[in-house]
Specification:
3-stranded antiparallel β-sheet, 43% strand, 136 residues, 5-stranded antiparallel β-sheet
């Protein structure tokens, strides 16, 4: 489960999930829910692989979202489906998506950057909660 919340001139992501892998998947889904009006319009026609090293969960989440945003910006791709495995030394992930198609994808926000501001992953009654502020 994720929700977006306003934060001054930025936008926040709040993600709640039962485990760390699901938390990272939901955070990626929330990021692209900011970018495209309807993530259901994104077809899984292209597969991208990710391997990110790191042992700090918050920084790993930051690096994961930053890498997704970098590929989105550089390759003009939208992602709609994710699989993530987080270990003590980093993560491996697969994201599926397609190049932006102006006829089918209505873009919502231009996300400029993922920020460290108020970045956190904490215990929650339903497992874990993460909050990330993005610059729009």
């Amino acid at each position: 489960m994720y929700e977006l919340f306003g934060h001054t001139a930025d936008l926040g992501l709040r993600v709640i999930a039962a485990d760390l892998d699901t938390l990272f998947v939901e955070a990626a889904q929330a990021l692209f829910a900011m970018i495209v009006e309807d993530t259901a319009t994104v077809q899984p026609v292209r597969e991208e692989l990710f391997a990110i090293a790191g042992d700090d969960r918050e920084y790993l989440l930051f690096d994961w979202l930053r890498e997704l945003l970098r590929r989105h910006d550089e390759e003009r791709i939208l992602f709609g489906k994710f699989a993530v495995t987080v270990t003590a030394s980093g993560l491996t992930a697969t994201a599926w998506g397609e190049p932006i198609d102006a006829a089918r994808h209505q873009l919502s926000h231009e996300v400029k950057a993922i920020t460290y501001h108020e970045l956190k992953i904490i215990p929650h009654a339903d497992g874990l909660m993460a909050e990330v502020i993005v610059d729009i």
